[in-house]
Structure formats: structure tokens, C-alpha cells
Design goal:
- This protein has 364 residues and is an alpha/beta fold.
- The chain is built from 13 helices and 12 strands.
- The two termini are 31 Å apart.
- The structure holds 5-amino-5-deoxy-1-O-phosphono-D-mannitol (M6R).
- The site of 5-amino-5-deoxy-1-O-phosphono-D-mannitol (M6R) has 16 residues, from helix 4 and helix 11.
- One of its GO terms (biological process) is UDP-N-acetylglucosamine metabolic process.
Length: 364
């Protein structure tokens, strides 16, 4: 059932081009985005005053990414909450708030409890769910399925990637209906979305290079991930992927926040993974990379093709293909998933079933 792969995780990493295409294609028609399951009229979309995205773990990380996109292109304020925190802070939910619950399993206890809390307060809930017919799918007012197929490995990869796609589609649809993007911008975004599966495939095929690199870090004590804007969101996910399956301590930091804490932990040879895909934040990131490098860090940079001058501030570089600036997480995550995977394999860990973790967390 592993289809010739050594682990489910590697199989699922390889299934991402298809999972992304399957989630995307049914919602693109005649050069437009159609999300029938949303069941919202244009008037209702225009009336949205706030979006609350609620989830756990990696699904929460997709919400952190989505916040930048909903706010950036649709200009709708977004709050992102960990489901385990949401209910206990007496959240302000008004009539025109849209709650989005993101969950692969559809059974995560805290996410389900958050859904119930939102419904109790009379707010409309949209589920972004992978498992058809799961509790969250059944209880949400509307469900947008991610079509990743069954995910077995505890560390999510393909479900994560499809959760991003679902939220890109929503943000684009909301932006278009609210008159925040033009027909040409819409066309360009759709063109870039359609290119993602092939671009992801290209990055997945680069696995030997990542494996070699990962093998150098099997004995690492700490690894840091830094980024700004949506590259900070991807750093959170890269860090979780690594630590949950390799048991190496790792932290994600908004790069500008380094000097307020973590920089004191950088020693000679500490690996710092810097993601820099955003043009307007590029120079700031370079400065942060120089800061850690001066203190002995080994810097792995993940950046867009063409940014070759990054090599003056990095020790090792992975380039990702060009895409819309809001979609770069879908590409930058691939080398980070592979890195976590190969470090775990190299250490001889139980990749698909890391200790103390369950695929679906059904207790609060
Ligand atoms: O099934 P869910 O998407 O609700 O699960 C949420 C988290 O438990 C999950 O993403 C977890 O963080 C993964 N193990 C991360 O790889």
C-alpha cells in the first residue's frame, strides 16, 4: 500500500502535484473561480467584515499563511486562532464574521469544539476538510473539501498543501467579488495556480540533493527557521515538520524578532534555514542572514529563481520557481518537508508514526 515507497510520508510528498491539481481544477471554470460548496451569494461575500480561521498544528499554519492573502488581496481582516485557545478567550463574533475551520481529519477535538462554539453564537461556519463525512464536515454549515485522498503519515504533507490551495481559491474569489482585483489580475493568478502542480513536481524530483544536505544534520541539536511575512508562516511549518519526526529541537522565528531572543542561541555551525520569497522583504532578510552568519550560523536559503545574489549571505541555496508572491509557500514547503523527512530517516526514527503523536487528536 506504500506503492513502492519506503514510507507513507514520502509517498504522500510525491502525491502532492496530483492532490493540488485535484483540489484546484474542479474550482476553475472559464477563467474564473467557482466554489459552489461555499453557498454564499455575492452580497453575502461583500458583507463579510471579518474572517476567523481556526485550526490546530499544520492546519493552523495554513491559516497563518491565508491571513496574509485574505488581507493582502481581499482586504478582509483576518484573525487566526489555535482551536485550543479560541473558545477560552470569549472571542468577538459578530453577524458578518465568517468562521473557517481547517482540518485534515475533520475529527480534531479542539477544532470541532471551536466549530460548535461559533455555531452556538450564530455565526456561519465553513469547514475546509479532507475526510469526507467526518464530524467537522457534517457539522459545518458548508464544506469545501480538499481532495488530497487518504493521508496516513502523522506528519501532514499533501493535506497541508491542499489546505493552502483551498484558502487561495477563497481569497481570490472574495477579492474578485469585492472588486479588489481586476480581470487581468484574476487571469494571472489563475495561470500561476495552474502551474503549481508541475512546479511542485520539479521540487519533489530534487530529493536526492536535499537528502545529501539533510544527512549532514542528523546530529544537530537545534535548528532554526526564519522568515518574514508569509515566509514566517512557512517557517512555522518547516520547523514543525522537522521536530515532530526527527526529535531535533527547532524553532521558527519571525526574522526581525531574532535579536529579541533567539539570536543568543546561535553557535558555531548552527543551521538556520532562511526563507526569502518576498521581494519587498528581501533586503531585510539578507541583513538577518548576515547577523546570524556573523555569529557562526550555517545558512540555508530558500528563495526564488533569479535571486542569485543571495549567495553572498548564504552557505547553501535552494531555488524555487517563479510564482505569484502569495503562492510561494506552496513551493517553499517542498524542500522543507523533504528535509524533515530525510533527517528523520537518517536518524532511524519511526517516520510515519513518531513517538507520542497520533494522526488525529480526538481529545482536548
Ligand atoms: O486533522 P487535523 O488537520 O485537524 O490535524 C491538526 C493537527 O493535529 C495536525 O496538523 C498535526 O499538527 C500534524 N501532525 C502536523 O504534521
Amino acid at each position: 500500500e506504500k506503492g513502492g515507497y519506503e514510507h507513507f510520508m514520502l509517498k504522500e510528498i510525491n502525491e502532492q502535484p496530483k492532490a493540488v491539481a485535484d483540489t484546484l481544477n474542479p474550482r476553475l471554470k472559464d477563467g474564473k473561480v467557482y466554489i459552489e460548496e461555499l453557498n454564499m451569494t455575492d452580497e453575502e461575500i461583500i458583507a463579510i467584515k471579518k474572517i476567523c480561521i481556526i485550526a490546530c498544528g499544520s492546519a493552523y499554519h495554513t491559516g497563518v499563511t491565508a491571513k496574509y492573502i485574505f488581507e493582502g488581496i481581499a482586504r478582509i481582516p483576518v484573525e487566526v486562532d489555535l482551536a485550543s485557545e479560541f473558545r477560552y478567550r470569549n472571542p468577538i463574533l459578530e453577524k458578518d464574521t465568517l468562521v473557517i475551520i481547517v482540518s485534515q481529519s475533520g475529527e480534531t477535538a479542539d477544532s470541532l469544539a471551536a466549530l460548535r462554539e461559533a455555531k452556538k453564537r450564530g455565526v456561519k461556519v465553513l469547514g475546509i476538510v479532507n475526510v469526507v463525512g467526518s464530524s467537522i464536515a457534517r457539522e459545518a454549515d458548508n464544506v469545501m473539501y480538499t481532495w488530497a485522498g487518504p493521508e496516513i503519515a502523522v506528519a501532514t504533507t499533501k493535506a497541508y498543501s491542499t489546505q493552502l490551495i483551498a484558502q487561495y481559491l477563497l481569497a481570490i474569489q472574495f477579492a474578485y467579488v469585492r472588486g479588489k482585483i481586476s480581470d487581468i489580475e484574476l487571469e494571472e493568478m489563475i495561470r500561476d495556480l495552474k502551474r503549481l502542480p508541475d512546479q511542485i513536481e520539479l521540487l519533489v524530483n530534487n530529493k536526492e540533493k536535499i537528502q545529501k544536505f539533510a544527512n549532514r544534520y542528523i546530529a544537530a541539536k537545534d535548528i532554526f527557521f526564519i522568515g518574514r511575512g508569509i515566509d514566517y508562516a512557512i517557517s512555522l511549518e518547516g520547523s514543525l515538520k522537522l521536530k515532530e519526526i526527527s526529535y531535533i529541537h527547532s524553532e521558527a522565528y519571525a526574522a526581525g524578532e531574532l535579536k529579541h531572543g533567539t539570536i543568543s542561541l546561535i553557535e558555531d555551525g548552527t543551521l538556520v534555514t532562511a526563507v526569502l520569497t518576498q521581494e519587498e522583504l528581501y533586503q531585510k532578510m539578507i541583513s538577518n542572514m548576515v547577523e546570524v552568519r556573523t555569529r557562526g550560523a550555517f545558512v540555508l536559503a530558500i528563495t526564488n529563481e533569479g535571486n542569485t545574489d543571495v549567495e553572498r549571505a548564504a552557505d547553501y541555496v535552494i531555488y524555487i520557481p517563479q510564482t505569484n508572491k502569495y503562492f510561494t509557500n506552496s513551493l517553499a514547503i517542498i524542500p522543507l518537508q523533504l528535509f524533515g523527512y530525510y533527517v528523520s530517516v537518517g536518524k532511524g526514527c519511526d517516520v510515519d508514526k513518531p513517538r507520542n503523536l497520533a494522526k488525529s487528536v480526538t481529545v482536548e
